[in-house]
Amino acid sequence: VQLVESGGGLVQPGGSLRLSCTASGFTFSSYGMSWYRQAPGKERELVASITNTGGSTNYADSVKGRFTISRDNAKNTVYLQTNSLKPEDTAVYYCAARLPWGMYWGKGTLVTVSS
Q1: Buried-most residue among 25, 85, 86, 95 (CB within 10 A)?
Q2: Bridge partners of 19?
Q3: Are 2 and 76 within 8 A, CB to CB?
Q4: What percent of the chain has pLDDT over 90?
């Protein structure tokens, strides 16, 4: 199983980024996917999740209305569109797959929101 994130970077407050996570090593279309984040000095937290078909999504209260999770099963890729970014969104963002035989994580992509 391999999860590879991309799309992070430095953005000004109010800006947007689209994060991507490409998966391999398992049947992507059969499993839900999630995005987590970990800010400096804080615990990792769940940001958003999506079911295998994309028919249902869930978000942390702190990002509702600003972030959108989506997936393209033909490309084995899950996305996180982040809008109206705030300095408190600064964190390493991780893609995760909870499979029957274990939880898998990508290496993360850093999002820095600063003027």
Answers
A1: 95
A2: 80
A3: no
A4: 100
